[in-house]
Amino acid sequence: MPPTPAGPPPPLLLTIDTDTHASGWAVWSRGELADAGRSRPPRLLEYMGPAVVVIERPRHYPGSKIKARVDDLLDSAIEAGRLAGRYESGLCAVELITAPNWKGQAPKHVTQARARRALSASELELVEERILRDCKRDKRKASDVWDAIGIGLWRLGR
């Protein structure tokens, strides 16, 4: 797994895995998972003060086995830029990363297994509730939430 950023964890962290219509997101308070879901990312940070926001920036990988539609990649990139601008205009520090930054070349099933092992029992229970609420057992949608959680775990060095 790639190295995590140096320094202490931020008091408030929002991690986002962008998608074309809704994004996976996770909110971390003092290093612990406080909420997660799949929707438009929450407006929590607009009134909670300074925070760090980490957004996965979509990227095209020539030769990849996964064939992403160009329009979907562009829409996701636009959403990542829109979110970055929204949070930068407030009191937030925004970090844009690519998938290899936080997970290397690991496939989704591996990163999800890592995330499950790293979460506490109460955090895991929260994730399962939120995935059921927002994703209705849709594995593709749920993977957006798991990716946002994986980004947060990486950023926090967990």
Question: Can you give a write-up of this model?
Answer:
The chain is an alpha/beta fold. It has a single domain, classed as Ribonuclease H-like superfamily/Ribonuclease H (Nucleotidyltransferase, domain 5), CATH 3.30.420.10. It contains six helices and five strands; from the N terminus they run βββαβαβαααα. It has a five-stranded mixed β-sheet, sandwiched between helices. Strand 1 and strand 2 form a beta hairpin. Helix 4 crosses helix 6 and helix 5 runs antiparallel to helix 6. The radius of gyration is 15 Å and the shape is globular. The N and C termini lie close together (11 Å).
Summarize the structure.
With 158 residues, this protein is an alpha/beta fold.
Radius of gyration: 15 Å
Distance between the termini: 11 Å
Share of helical residues: 40-55%
The main β sheet shows up as: 5 strands, mixed
Average of the residue pLDDT scores: 86
Broad CATH class: Alpha Beta
CATH topology: Nucleotidyltransferase, domain 5
What would you call the quaternary organization?
single chain
Order of helices and strands: EEEHEHEHHHH
Content of β-strand: 15-25%
Give the helix tally. Answer: 6
Give the helix/strand class. Answer: alpha/beta
Kindly report the spatial arrangement of strands forming the biggest sheet: 3-2-1-4-5
CATH superfamily: Ribonuclease H-like superfamily/Ribonuclease H
Q: Provide the number of structural domains.
A: 1
Q: Could you name the ranges where pLDDT drops below 50 across 5 or more consecutive residues?
A: none
Number of strands: 5
| Annotated CATH architecture | 2-Layer Sandwich
The shape, in one word, is globular
